[in-house]
Amino acid sequence: MKFKIGFDIDKGKNSEEVKNEKTFSSENSDNVENFVYMDNHSSGTVAKKSVVEVYFEDRGISCSYYNDAFDLKLGDIVFVEGKLEGLPGRVTDISYSFKIKLSEYKKVIRVADTTVKGTFLLGGRCLFTKQENALPFEKIRGWFMPYTYSEEEYVIGSDDFSFPLRAPGAIKISKDVGGRGVDYFESGRVLYIELKNNHGRALVKGSRIYEVEFDYKNGEISNPNCECFCSGICKHIFSVILQLNELILIAEDNYPELDIMAGYLAIVNKEVFYGYALSEDKYGALVLK
Ligand SMILES: [Zn+2]
């Protein structure tokens, strides 16, 4: 059975709504200072000062923050300053009526862009797309990390070995690392994989989110490396290889017309997708075939 999910979700307010808000601000001169025009938020709308409650799933706690920079909506993924800097949190409450001492509040410093547009196919525990701009690595990385991706330079040593993607059983790793890699894969910790121009990048959830990179060409994986700085193949890299193999098998059975490993490919864990890209959307389209 085949499913296809095609959708087009634009979380930005439509121009009519934005226009109304601006009109409101100019007609109520007392409130003008409450409206700041934003151009660094994906929705490109106005920001209204607010105090927001943010829930940090990783820590299981909620805290309040002052926001004067973004047009926040319930469910938005935000990053804050202060002790929880660097951790993604979800906006669970917004109040516009408040009086606070600014010195006692930390601020919201970034909102993740969880807008996704494109056609995704179902592939087991994942969804995948061959459309390059549907959900690129840089965007989904911003759902988990505080700053956007920069091409920071790393020195990566490589001993020039490669191995066939389709034979993960032949990879030389310890039983312990292999077992944990299988656990990671089976429990859905591989959140995302992108293959672009023979280069792979992936996000794996361990004690934090780890970035995995590798090269892929003619069925061979080479230069695998991971942020955990283990030498050789770590559990994160191994779990990514297992996830790729599962998707290839599913694609061969269900999408025989598709050359899954040719050209661009992005794979996203279903729960991540539902939890971030769809969770608070009130409109958009899902097409199941
Ligand atoms: Zn690792």
**Overall geometric form:** globular
Rg over C-alpha atoms, rounded to the nearest angstrom: 21 Å
- Kindly give the count of domains: 2
| Percent helix | 10-25%
Distance between the termini: 9 Å
Which distinct ligands sit in these coordinates? zinc ion
What fraction of the residues are assigned to beta strands by DSSP? Answer: 25-35%
The ordered H/E elements are: EHEEEEEEEEEHEHEEEEHEH
Largest sheet: 9 strands, antiparallel
Biggest sheet strand order reads: 1-9-10-16-12-13-14-15-11
Average pLDDT, to the nearest integer? 84
**What is the number of E strands?**
16
Question: How would you characterize the overall build of this protein?
Answer:
- The chain is an alpha+beta fold and 289 residues long.
- It has two domains: 12-111, no CATH class; 117-278, no CATH class.
- Helices cover 21% and strands 31% of the residues.
- It contains five helices and 16 strands.
- Strand 6 and strand 7 (89-95) form a beta hairpin.
- The radius of gyration is 21 Å and the shape is globular.
- The protein starts with a strand and ends in an 11-residue tail after the last helix.
- The relative contact order is 0.16.
- Residues 210, 226, 228, 230, 234, 236-237 line the site of zinc ion.
